[in-house]
Design brief:
about 325 residues, alpha/beta, about 20% strand, globular, binds benzoyl-formic acid, 12 helices
Length: about 325
């Protein structure tokens, strides 16, 4: 082959290679594989505190076509309630719907989240979101993606009436949410997953339990419940957590899909006020009577809730507790 021809051939090859390399670079995002995340919820599938996550999954599977999808595996039948924190931390699960009360073993200061009096929208604005995200990343190796449950309070439910805020002599089902408060009021706490509450009531091994205003009917607990104590206290936090390695490996496009669906979900927290009222009416229809503390009793009930709650968080880490309190409490 003539020398010139060989050179031009060589140049052609090099040119082709350069174009091919450039094309490959440009084509990478379009050709990148759709990522599928394994999702698990800490609450029974189809019940109140799984529903926002289920709507989120549906949303992501719609808006994230070709980019990111969530394979919703299920609830505590797939991963036991108090194990889900470890599972998402270790990457056995990629994305979890979980409340801090179920993973205090990993993020003890998470107990501060239900003491918030502002909303997740406020927390995104005032920097609290970053602080909470940082805690989750450092202590649990998860990305804190979203918070649901704003505007929903917790209550004490009972099988027999009480006269005042003294809970001594009562054995009450708790999670870390209620423990400090109920103990401060003299109760004997017994920690169980939600899945064990019905049986505990049926057997008479507990006199009552802590639970939010929503969800009692979903779980059929109204059959074993005679009283709800008002006022409610604290504010539910049910969070979406993504395994940190998995999150970091996602494309920017996939992260955006998840982030936008998170904000979309959080905007729906506003609907909880109406749902609370509907649920309270349904409880009344089901025969659950309200024991309402008024005046000084109400004040001391709520003050004990706040004080005992923050004392417990401060005992874990006073400095960080103060930082959290400054941005979670109005
Ligand atoms: O009572 C509980 O199991 C609990 O702590 C909780 C937290 C958030 C939502 C629902 C229940």
């Amino acid at each position: 082959m003539p020398k010139t021809g060989s050179r031009s051939n060589w140049e052609e090859i090099m040119k082709y290679r350069a174009i091919a390399a450039l094309a490959a670079t440009l084509a990478t995002p379009a050709l990148s594989e759709e990522v599928t995340l394994r999702g698990v919820t800490a609450f029974a599938s189809g019940t109140t505190f799984s529903r926002p996550f289920e709507a989120f999954v549906e949303r992501v599977n719609e808006t994230g076509k070709g980019v990111v999808q969530i394979n919703y595996v299920g609830g505590p039948e797939a991963v036991p309630t108090f194990e889900l924190g470890n599972a998402v931390s270790a990457g056995v699960v990629d994305i979890a719907n979980n409340t801090t009360a179920f993973y205090t073993n990993l993020v003890p200061l998470g107990d501060a989240l239900h003491l918030a009096t502002n909303t997740i929208q406020d927390q995104r604005e005032n920097g609290c979101f970053e602080l909470v995200d940082q805690l989750h990343q450092e202590q649990m190796s998860v990305k804190y993606l979203a918070r649901t449950g704003d505007n929903i309070q917790f209550h004490l439910y009972l099988t027999s009436p009480i006269e005042d805020t003294d809970l001594s002599g009562l054995t009450l089902r708790v999670t870390p949410v209620y423990r400090a408060m109920f103990e401060a009021l003299g109760a004997t706490p017994v920690q169980t997953a939600p899945g064990e509450v019905y049986t505990a009531l049926e057997r008479g091994s507990i006199d009552g339990y802590g639970w939010p205003v929503q969800g009692v009917m979903d779980l059929g607990w109204d059959e074993q419940t005679n009283y709800r104590v008002d006022p409610g206290f604290y504010q539910v936090d049910v969070n979406f957590l993504v395994n940190l390695d998995r999150w970091n490996a996602l494309s920017d496009e996939a992260k955006t899909v998840l982030h936008e669906a998170a904000l979309w979900t959080e905007a729906k927290n506003a609907e909880n006020r109406d749902i609370n009222a509907e649920e309270a009416a349904r409880q009344e229809e089901a025969g659950i009577e309200v024991i309402r503390f008024e005046g000084d009793s109400a004040e001391s009930w709520l003050a004990t809730a706040q004080d005992a709650g923050w004392d417990a968080v401060e005992a874990i880490d006073a400095e960080r507790a103060a930082e959290l309190k400054a941005c979670l409490v109005d």
